[in-house]
Amino acid sequence: MLPPSVLAHLNRTLDVPLHLQVYEGLREAILQGTLKPSHRLPSTRAMAQHLGVSRNTVLLAFEQLLLEGYLESRVGDGTYVTHTLPDTSLQKPEVKPEQQGRQPALSRRAQKLLQVQVTQYLSQPEYRAFRSGMPALKDFPFEEWRKLHARHWKTPPVQLLAYGDPRGYLPLREAISEYLNASRGVRCTPDQVLITSGSQQGLELAARLLLDDGDSLWMEDPGYLGARAAFQASGLNVCPIPIDQEGMQVQHGAEHHPHARMVYVTPSHQYPLGITLSLTRRLELLKWARQSGAWILEDDYNSEYRYEGRPLNALQGLDQDGRVIYIGTFSKVLLPAVRLGYLVLPESLIDLFIHARSLVDRMPPGVSQAVLAEFMENGGFERHIRRMRGLYAERQAFFIELAQKHFPEWLQVQPSPAGMHLVSHLAEPFSDVQLVEEASRAGVTVRALSPSYLHSPEQGLLFGYAGYPEDETILAARDLGRAFSRIRISDP
Ligand SMILES: Cc1ncc(COP(=O)(O)O)c(C=O)c1O
Asked: Mind listing the pLDDT tens digit for each residue in 472-485?
């Protein structure tokens, strides 16, 4: 007869069809050896009766097991458990420790990667005030986007459905290159544009393709944790370069880390402090890179959000000898989940990056690129930027007003002419990490500044204001004020 486990498998309250439950029960019994090879199964009729299911249910289960080779049918004789099991290796034999095989080892690359803290900057899963780095998700032009998607999916040309150019869809590269030439002073042709799945892929590719394990790279200190993690995971020696009111101190880098082979920099809005790299420093940096043969990675992640005056053009536009790799993203200007970004490559690197891109993930997704290309061509992109610029400027002013009302002693900031967050430095001996925890207990997200430093961390808090409507900002500011007032009483 059947082992009781097959009957035990049946549960009529589950959403799983009964024939699959019978199949699972029999399969498990075979794999565990309760039903032995060459065991003769009862007829489908008897089994159906025994299990209280229809004969058809058992027939379907048998059919699947026969197809997969667990059962064999002997003409005129009945159905048997296959005499040579297809996956006996799946059975878990009792193995003494000394008989156990050796665990396959991880690569040294993987071990290095596991030591890098990636969760630190992704560890706030909640989307709530005042999480920084978030655009106004709910103000995205969903209807326009939906219509574009619907139209492009209706009769997409084959070139968007099959494998395509690893660099990305040409009309999107054209739209990006036109936008960058006009708005950011980037000098490039569509051929130099490589579409990526966000800046992160660009950073990772550049680090891996242009530098070797142990090579040194300059990075602003404090700096962007996402970039730092990618560089450390690639085995690079990240050299912290202090910043002042003019941005990265190039002279410091030249003196202390002269052999660096790459510089990662956020010139238009230093992350996280928001400083603009001065023209003098830009020229100094380009000169040093030229003399020492180093690459420059320019991360221009949210230059669109400037509320006063015109932003300084991109560093890339000043580059005379093809050493700047410009990185852009649609994560801030549209949505992080769009997962599209781009690199603007010097001519000399185009072939290498195409090569690598085709090995990593072949190419970017076809229709998504076509949708974005049209959004850029038809003026939707510019309109969205203009709307968000107005909205974020208002939200910044509103946030400052409320912060001054509810926690004035914790917010020593001036209005910022750019960006999506504000940074407030803390007087010693308060710990920003502790304050973040206190805020979190009150249901408010703020980010600590100190983890962004590699050297001599300063304490501070980052408040993202762009992503949150007035009602949320009002509640979060009130709750944060209460939470912080508790600290003032008991600390330091
Ligand atoms: C400095 C910097 N660069 C780039 C990004 C965007 O990364 P991605 O394009 O991978 O979403 C961010 C997001 O927080 C950032 O702060």
From this structure: 999 999 999 999 88
Q: Which CATH class is domain 142-379?
A: alpha beta
CB of 330 within 6 A of ligand 1: the answer is no
Is beta strand 447-448 parallel, antiparallel or unpaired with respect to 460-464?
antiparallel
**CATH hierarchy code of domain 4-102:** 1.10.10.10
Query: Is 369 near ligand 1, meaning CB less than 6 Å away?
Result: no
Q: Which atom of ligand 1 is nearest to the CA of 202?
A: 10
- Enumerate the domain spans of the chain: 4-102, 142-379, 383-485
pTM recorded for the entire structure: 0.87
Q: Per CATH, which fold does 383-485 belong to? A: Aspartate Aminotransferase, domain 1 (3.90.1150)
CA of 267 to the centre of ligand 1 (A): 14
Q: How far apart are the first and last CA of the chain?
A: 74
77-117 pLDDT, tens digit per residue, is 899 999 887 655 556 666 677 777 788 899 998 998 888 88
Mutate to test the pocket of ligand 1, among 270, 331, 340 (most ligand atoms within 8 A of CB): 331
